[in-house]
Design a protein that fits this description.
By secondary structure, the protein is α+β, with helices and mostly antiparallel strands. The protein is 47% helix and 25% strand. Strand 1 and strand 2 form a beta hairpin.
């Protein structure tokens, strides 16, 4: 009887752990989580063609559904129009002292530029899922080097590398949770088999 009680207690403990892991899995990997995560706003200053690369910072990472607000603080004061290289957004003229806001609707790498300045004013917005940690904002020298490297590299290769690096952590966490759940199921199955086997022996005695 004591053995059955201990087995039942172990089974309940393992079941509670499995339910907890399932809840964590749903919490971090459910698509609904992405839809609910929103509201953060990142500020990018338009510093102008006189202070290359013209944006501060010019390389940022945000979560999906977060927003970017561009504030024209150029010196000397000048009106700028911003456009993404893939055509996903176009600001229209942004006068000095005014601002413009954009909210990306899908993950990916968005390269953009000032229409009147061409490659002299460029920036990059990296949009990642809500479950992925944001990249730290590099120092200005590192930003300029990164922009130059991305501009010189094949576009498809850059996008592939960025996607792999962003999803690697999420995939590792997902695989770890699946392995733990499988191990738990095996242990529970073994305990149930042992409990039934012990009960059968007692019945024969």
């Amino acid at each position: 009887m004591a053995g059955q009680t201990a087995t039942l207690s172990s089974f309940r403990s393992l079941l509670a752990v499995l339910l907890l892991l399932s809840g964590l899995f749903w919490r971090f990997f459910s698509p609904q989580q992405y839809a609910l995560a929103a509201g953060e706003t990142v500020i990018i200053e338009i510093t102008g063609i006189g202070t290359p690369p013209g944006f501060l910072p010019d390389l940022v990472s945000i979560h999906l559904h977060d927003s970017i607000t561009f504030i024209n603080q150029s010196r000397p004061s000048q009106m700028y129009t911003l456009a993404s290289d893939d055509g996903s957004f176009f600001s229209g003229p942004i006068a000095p002292g005014t601002q413009w806001k954009v909210t990306p609707t899908k993950t990916g790498t968005y390269e953009y530029h000032a229409v009147s300045a061409g490659l002299q004013m460029v920036g990059i917005i990296l949009v990642v899922p809500s479950s992925v940690a944001l990249l730290p904002t590099p120092d200005p020298g590192a930003i300029a080097l990164e922009v130059a490297n991305i501009r010189n590299a094949p576009k498809s290769g850059v996008e592939t590398s960025a996607t792999i690096s962003l999803l690697s952590l999420q995939n590792i966490i997902l695989l770890s949770i699946v392995i733990v759940i499988l191990i738990g199921l095996v242990v529970v199955g073994y305990l149930l088999w042992r409990a039934r086997h012990s009960s059968g022996k007692r019945s024969l005695q």
